[in-house]
Amino acid sequence: MIICSTDTGIYLKWREEQKPIEKKISFNKFQPYFYIKTTDISSVPKSVYIRDRHGSLNAKLFYENVEKTSLEKELLTKVTWKPSRPEYSRKISKIFVNKNIDTYEADVAYHYRYAVDEITKIESSPLRKWYWDMEWMQGGEHDEAITCISVHDSFLNDTKLFYWFPKDSDIDMSNKYPNQHSTEKEMLEDYINFLLECNPDMLISWFGWKFDLPKLLARLVHNKIDARQLSPVFQVSGVSWKGSSPSINVKRTESSSPISQPIKGRICFSLDLAFERQWNDAQKGTLPSMALDYISETVLGDKKLVSEKFPDKNEFFKRAWLEDTETYLEYAIKDTDLLVRIDNENYTTESVLALQRLLKAPVDACFYASNMGGIYFMRNANWIVKTGNKNTERRNYDGAMVYNPLSENTNGLHIGVAAFDYKSLYPSMMVARNISWETKSTEPTEFKINIKTPKDFSEISEHEIVYFKTDKLGLLPKAVLELQELRNSYKVKMKDALDKEEYNKWNSNQMAVKRLMASFYGVLAYQGFSWADVDLAASITASAREAIREAAFIVRNL
How far apart are the C-alpha atoms of 29 and 117, rounded to whole Å? Predict the structure, then answer.
């Protein structure tokens, strides 16, 4: 499912029996909002002066009593504004903070806010995937021009190549590859027409966010083609059309992150990032390179095509287009083929989509711990969290425990070595010590955690102790227990799978649950984030260190 915010509101797209269903919700139908404490209502303004890309105006503020409370059980009031633009949220919140008025959930992205409030389920119907790659000239008369674009459509299960040669080249490859053109502009227009015809949901690339997409947008603008056509809502970040000429903010497009969604209404999917996360989650070791050539050889036992005429890559990209044409075009097709095979072999995109269904959130929320955990806790907490403050003073605390070898003599090959490992150590500590925001106590309880590792046996100061109540199960341990049960059910289905496809499906689901649980500690440790709590993070690492020390003591005394 596609969930994104646009200049006019929320855009939704999903599929039923491969047919696209679209829905648009305006800002007025789903208003952005945040909260303040009800006790602060007497000192709030009725309007605020806003200055943004739309100009200057006075935004009128509205206050509504709601049955919501903070973690401290304080009643909250809902704040909305007219014009109802989401980007005003942080601006208005800052004005309130400058008046010593705390705000709550003012830093929640608008499409995340909509997902939490309105999305109750995401179906598992297949999305239309476009795997794409392109090449461009590096030097010479046609320097920087895109020479070819290769696209594999998952619904057609077919790869198409769009390419061109100068009119004076006399090269004709149309018998083998039909979509030949005589100018870059004609090729790009043909490519866009095919995109509009297929209406793909996902644009999947390898480092495309860093190289291919900024280049594509720049060349569309160069050829005076409206790049906004790439978007079903006619909105592409950094691209505008003023008068008769397009323009592009090059800095904005080239500095995009791997999770940014510049083409509104389509998921720009960074397969490299998703694969790397998947590899790390499976604990397969450190990847020395994320280059497509290396990854395809590691995963598939296959590599990029090599030109016998131009084995040097620099020479290949300068000359092969017109001097080793068939190899050059096959190279482009092979790159796209490798993307498809890597994804199919590892179920990479489907793993992320499984996490999306679990979170009931936009796909871009499925890459970073703060987004994953934040959305999950917003859905499940019975309190509203205070707006994060990136200027919060950072606190250092003791992290993981690593035992160094006792001496250099321990290096080398050893026989009869046993390995001990804790299953989900950090989540287990959350459950064992009932570590959670609402269970943290200022008064002594039976759960007393020393968050500092003592260097001697001297008395520990009181500020290095954190207490947790035990009378009620906290949000964190409750979430861990529920997710562990869900993960175990998926593992049973994996075991009973009748074929590889079914196995991959349930494996993706259990890995999605694992990733979500793994994000919980990151949420706590990400200082300045709304759900961060150093006391909780430090208590988890301290409990883990204690567990490791106990295991080491037992082993040493066997």
Answer: 13
- CA–CA separation, 350 vs 503, rounded Å? 12
Q: pLDDT tens digit string along 204-220?
A: 999 998 899 999 999 99
In sequence order, what are the beta bridge partners of 403? none
Q: Where are the beta strands (DSSP E) in 415-543?
A: 440-441, 447-450, 465-468
Mean pLDDT of 22-50: 95
pTM tops 0.85: yes
| CB of 244 closer than 8 Å to CB of 225 | no
Average pLDDT estimate for 133-142: 91
Buried b (16+ CB within 10 A) or exposed e, 6-24: beebbbbbbbeeeeeeeee
| Topology (CATH level 3) of domain 2-118 | DNA Polymerase; Chain A, domain 1 (3.30.342)
Structure-block tokens of residue 164:
């061109």
Q: Per CATH, the architecture of 390-556 is what? A: Alpha-Beta Complex (3.90)
**Ranges of H-type helices in 286-382:** 292-300, 313-323, 325-346, 348-359, 369-380
Average pLDDT of span 327-337: 97
Q: Quick one: fold of 129-349?
A: Nucleotidyltransferase; domain 5 (3.30.420)
